[in-house]
Amino acid sequence: MTNRPAPSSPPRSRFAAILSENPDATIVAGATDVGLWVTKQMRRINPVIFIGHLTDLQSITEDETGITIGAGVSYTNAFDLLSDEIPALGRLIERIGGQQVRNVGTIGGNIANGSPIGDTPPALIALGAELTLRSHSGRRTLPLETFFIAYGKQDRLPGEFVEKILVPRPAEDAFYAVYKISKRRDEDISALCGAFHLTLDEEGKVETIRIAFGGMAGTPKRATHVEDALLGQPWSWGVISAVRDLFDADYQPLTDWRATAEYRSLTAKNLLTRFFLETAGAGQELVRFEMEEA
Ligand SMILES: Cc1cc2nc3c(=O)[nH]c(=O)nc-3n(C[C@H](O)[C@H](O)[C@H](O)COP(=O)(O)OP(=O)(O)OC[C@H]3O[C@@H](n4cnc5c(N)ncnc54)[C@H](O)[C@@H]3O)c2cc1C
Fold this sequence. Notes:
Enolase-like, domain 1; alpha+beta; 4-stranded antiparallel beta sheet
């Protein structure tokens, strides 16, 4: 049994046709990930389908629903619009790789590679982004978070490719922040990356909240235990301090050479605290708290 929606009407795409005939081919967009498979791991990646020149995948448009980013849009080409419309995403892009990587690396590649430490997936999941996959037989659209099934496993069938990502624009009164934690500011992969998207009702209670992290699990993943505990509660230090530890129910991170599991767990909690302090406003009671030992 599968709950995948039925593909919509068949598109005409030479890329889709070639991919359907060569479902095991390696798709190459900016090659900032794939290039390392060859130069560092000596992997053979033939046959290759290069898509870096496909203009159909390189449009970035906006309407009342949000911003639609073609899978082949580079970070550099996405930067101006995203910075204007969703400034926190612009600031995140400035932290991805260096200028050379941003000039050719694509948002579609960052999603399709399925890395648990890719920077855009948690940021886009927190916004409620939708992914459109395309194949020779049609298209299907799914919430981005469901694309990541398990470490190294994505919901992409043979012959399918990532076509575009719809990024809903946050409401005007919403709070949205992305925090990338890495050892260097530039040219460094995240130890963890947390994104928070909050709306409050008229009484200052949590109306909606989406929290997603990279670097905390085998996939980019929402913190549903923390979200559920916050829903309907006052956006107050008392509530935040009570729910912080629920991150331990959402995530059991690993230790690797970027960070220890303990560091990741504590930092996720502290990023919630930071988001609270940055959004609580002048009317909130000032908070003093002791940092726990990392
Ligand atoms: C020096 C350096 C620094 C980096 N810094 C960061 C960083 O700070 N943050 C970060 O998140 N990443 C970073 N990366 C990783 C990389 O740049 C990103 O993941 C980038 O977005 C990959 O995009 P690409 O177009 O180069 O993908 P490619 O390397 O071309 O492809 C990546 C994967 O996606 C698949 N793919 C690509 N496009 C499609 C498509 N349309 N449909 C289906 N599959 C597709 C490929 O087959 C491959 O599996 C860095 C890489 C380097 C080399």
